[in-house]
Amino acid sequence: MVEVIENKSGEISIKEVKNVGMISVRCDLLNKRFQKIVSKTCNLAVPKPLSINHNKNLSIAWMSTNEVLILDYSNAYLEKIIKDFKSFSSDMELLVLDSSSSRNLFLVNGDLWREVFAKGTPIDLRPAFFNKDSFRRTRMGQIAVAFWMVSEYSAHIICSRSHSSFFYDWLCNASSKGSLEKFF
Q1: Could you point out which of 56, 103, 158, 159 has its C-alpha 20 to 30 Å from the C-alpha of 5?
Q2: Domains defined along the chain, listed by start
Q3: Is the dihedral of CA 34, 35, 36, 37 positive or negative?
């Protein structure tokens, strides 16, 4: 079960979504064997740079040229995915790490989520440049984050757990009533 803590701030709703499994996997993303392992284990393709792929239960996001992040929203597949990947690690250079306890996930809902994010990041958030399959790692409010669209009116954003309280307050402040004007 996913536990949610919510704060409505003006036109924006910010929810901290708990108990989401996150697995960091480091390997040569262009390795055909690795791509087959990801496809078999997650039922998803390795994402292209700056993108994210989804299915009903999982997402896999491009983190860097040699790293992906797998998100298990139900936290039901975490152990199986780690076990499956580790069974291949003896044959190839592969690092698999359960990073669930080191990161927090937030869901930002509302028409003006792009405006909130634009207050703290230099990423071009215009709909033509940042769309449904886009994924970005950057800094926001001086915190390292990664974010992607869930729908036209919402986005997920992750940060390190040690910064989550500060970042949650930053999001609430950036979305405070009367501080947002429609730009995108």
Answers
A1: 56
A2: 4-18+103-174 (3.30.1360.120), 21-101 (3.30.70.1520)
A3: positive
